[in-house]
Amino acid sequence: MxxxxxxxxxxAGVGKLYVAKVGTAVPAFGADSATDWKDWTDLGFTxxxxxxxxxxxxxxxxxxxxxVSPVHYIYSARDLSLKFSMLQFNEDTLPFFxxxxxxxxxxxxxxxxxKYEISERPFADVRALGLEFTDVKAxxxxxxxxxxxxxxxxxxxxDDIKLARKAASQLGVTFSAMxxxxxxxxxxxxxxxxxxxxxx
Length: 200
Hints:
- The protein is mainly beta.
- The protein has a single domain (11-196), classed as Factor Xa Inhibitor (Irregular), CATH 4.10.410.
- The protein is 5% helix and 42% strand.
- The chain has helices at residues 33-36, 93-98, and strands spanning 14-20, 41-42, 52-64, 67-86, 104-105, 114-115, 127-136, 143-158, 171-177, 188-192.
- The strands form 2 sheets. Strands 1, 2, 3, 4, 7, 8, 9 and 10 form an 8-stranded antiparallel β-sheet that branches. A two-stranded antiparallel sheet has the order 5-6.
- Strand 5 (104-105) and strand 6 (114-115) form a beta hairpin.
- The protein is globular, with a radius of gyration of 21 Å.
- InterPro entries: Bxb1_TTP-like (IPR058154).
- This is Phage tail protein.
- Pfam families: Phage_TTP_17.
């Protein structure tokens, strides 16, 4: 609703990121968040700066002889991406960062030894990505939950991994949305938040 309302300010205090196969059902709100996301893989701890959401549209101007200003714009591209850094190294996060493949156990007699091979030729590692964060309305105790789903996308950029004595190594990625077919959304927000009601 228009006007000053501190109950509509959102701070993503606690959040999680999930990945799944393309086509995995969008989780419905239930009594337990972990149960809601049972078909998705939790990517674990991420850095404290959270997630950077980016939406950039590219427009092409149409000029005319009769005007020095554009007379029309047409959309030529849309880029929608999430940027974040994972803190955990495991069989889910490392292949996600590297662009696919899998971690495999070394044969006996090796014990607790695993191998991940980086392919010479990159292949598309298309997945679904989900984000959830919770907040509490200002001046109250009512919790709100936001979910953001990219049904189809892939990692399009990866940050350098710094190996140092005084800092945790990070797996930083940019995950970009891809078309999921004609008439289907590029991404979806799902909000358990009564402030969107016209009666609030």
